[in-house]
From TrEMBL:
PROSITE patterns: 2FE2S_FER_2
GO molecular function, one term: 2 iron, 2 sulfur cluster binding
UniProt keyword annotations, A-Z: 2Fe-2S, Iron, Iron-sulfur, Metal-binding
Cofactor(s) this protein requires: [2Fe-2S] cluster
Iron among keywords: yes
GO BP term, pick one: P450-containing electron transport chain
Family, as annotated: Belongs to the adrenodoxin/putidaredoxin family.
InterPro entries for the chain: 2Fe-2S_ferredoxin-like_sf, 2Fe-2S_ferredoxin-type, Adrenodoxin-like, Beta-grasp_dom_sf
Leader sequence residues: none
Superkingdom in the source lineage: Bacteria
Protein name (Swiss-Prot/TrEMBL): 2Fe-2S iron-sulfur cluster binding domain-containing protein
Organism expressing this protein natively: Sphingomonas changnyeongensis
């Protein structure tokens, strides 16, 4: 499936990712170094924060309490905020568009 990634400088790129990876892994594997993902996907660092295009938000799995708590620590949280490591990338998400959140 395809993932559309908007970098912090506004540049948008469509990349191909394997279903079964997390959205964080797809972004990172495609060279977006600004998505630090320091904890490697353990839901403990919040450096994989992305804003999901509003038309997709409702189609994603609900967030866990841990994800919600971590996002609370960000100054840039909004209604479309998610941690990319907590979104499994699936065929149903083909065309998903996410914007890498500003650095905290
Ligand atoms: Fe650390 Fe997602 S990579 S919370």
């Amino acid at each position: 499936p395809k993932l559309v990634v908007v970098a912090r400088n506004g540049n948008e790129r469509t990349v191909e990712g394997d279903a079964g990876l997390s959205v964080m892994e797809v972004i990172r594997d495609n060279g977006f170094d600004e998505l630090l993902a320091l904890c490697g996907g353990c839901c403990s660092c919040a450096t994989c924060h992305v804003h999901v295009d509003p038309e997709w938000t409702a189609r994603l799995p609900a967030m866990s309490e841990d994800e919600n708590d971590l996002l609370e620590s960000s100054d840039h949280r909004n209604a479309d905020s998610r941690l990319a490591c907590q979104i499994p990338f699936t065929a149903e998400l083909d065309g998903l568009r996410v914007t890498i959140a500003a650095e905290d």
